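ugh ok so i messed up the first submission bc i forgot one of the chains. this is the corrected input, ALL of the components this time, i swear. 510 residues overall. if the numbers dont match what u have on ur side tell me asap before i send this to the collaborators (the ones from the other lab, u know who)
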Amino acid sequence: MSNREVRVRFAPSPTGGLHLGGVRTALFNYLFARKNNGKFILRIEDTDQTRFVPGAEEYIIKSLEWIGLDVDESDLKGGEYGPYKQSNRKHLYRQYAEQLVNDGFAYYAFDTPEELEDMRKKLEAEKASVQSYGPATRMTMKNSLTLGNEKTQELLNSGVQYVVRFKMPENEKLVLKDIIRGEISADTSLLDDKVLFKSDGMPTYHLANIVDDHLMKISHVIRGEEWLPSLPLHYLLYRSFGWLDTMPEFAHLPLILKPDGKGKLSKRDGDRLGFPVFPLDWTDPKTGEHSKGYKETGYLPQAFMNMMALLGWNPGNTTQEIFTKEELCSLFTLEHVNKSGSKFDPEKNKWFNKQYIEQTSNEILAEYFIEDAKNAGFEVNKEKASVLCGLVKDRAHFTHDLWLQSEYFFKAPTEYNSANVKKFWKEDSPELLSKSVEILKGIDDFTSKNMENIVSEWINSNGLSFGKVLNPMRLALAGECKGPHIFDILEQLGKQESIKRIEDGIKNIK
RNA sequence: GGUCCUUUCGUCUAGCGGUUAGGACGCAAGAUUUUCAUUCUUGUAACACCGGUUCGAUUCCGGUAGGGACUACCA
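and heres the new structure output, hopefully the right one now
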């Protein structure tokens, strides 16, 4: 088992935007595959036609691309175990369901939704601890076990709707292995006869999942903790099919929880607390509801990957927190995944993004800058954008901050921050600025360092203070008192524009 | 309600029988600074509880309590 090729799959349902839990499941599968020289497979699980959302599959693919999780096998990429979408594998599943029936591990059931509901209510009223359709109740229901062969055949032939249910064994104590959690125990008497094959001719998740994992030679199933209760059923399915020798190993990931309060992180929390829960912008085609993505909010993909990787996992024995994709791939082990759910912390994510912005080259940041400038109606060339990114990136949490904090380089201030005016604009400010204009006019080499030398010399030799000269000047140049080194601002603005802005400031600031 | 999983600073976590229980985010204070930031320093704050096992438990076992998931012809 341990020597077999590592093949893992990410198997989302195309029912909407890919939320953070899904993203992290995909990421851990990817990292595990890369670490073990295995294959990372994308399989689309669209067996529920009623929940299909147009665009969702494309969205999932685009999201994986943006994060940088390259897929080895999928319908798009190809592969020898395709098709990789369950609706296109529909013809495969029925025979497996029938095999189980023939071997006595499953049976046909004809109960109507109303009859099922009645049984549920009855058991609830009795406060019974058993499931509504399981070992304890199945002999009172309408199925091939109670009806007999002849009647069953008759019903089948007549074309009435039926499902195939798994015949959960009675009184078996199971102890199953999970890579992250160790041993999981279960008592089959308390489990139910899950539907494997639906009346619409499609398999349920349980059947399709086991059949496809088997057919696609999946070696490890890495999925969310919400599947843990299904593990006994899945194990029993492998056993009933006679596939135990090639059954994958299982690893159930802890859940991502709300930053505040209780429960699993949901889309609503993002809206409520003001952070994205989707990698990319997502608009629900039915409701038209729009959700912001990490990309559009201004996160760098590698920062996103880094912070997601550290949510519920860490390499152990290190204080390092910033990891390249390559480092993550070589360090990742399932054994270091935490057992308990982790609350999502948007603040720490901002910090991660800031770290990445700081360590990303100005040339790469310039591309984000140019894009934002363009949207604001300004054409900026790459050289200029790179220089400005270098000046402002210390202050940027998101890629958009780069442009937002540089806007005044392209647009003279039309108003001046009143709090700053109050604090820094003094009676002698106009006079000091007029004098600085004279100094600046006399400078031919209008570079930051040179100006700093000359202006400092002037300030020092006249017994003036830096603050009294430079703060009002900053106000005149940028409209507010924040931003990079003031002589860098002057250099980037250029002599003519700088002088004009200061002169305007003298006239307009009060 | 039932079943299963889980429990170290507010949050993310390190720790795998003997530690002054470490780091990061956040927060607070200070230093640097012409602004805002950055940076640096310091501080803040945790082993849920009760029993065992052991010379010794944060660490192993059991229980209690909290948290979470599941309990659909959804995945």
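quick check: The mean pLDDT of chain A is 95. that seems consistent at least. The longest strand of chain A covers residues 173-178.
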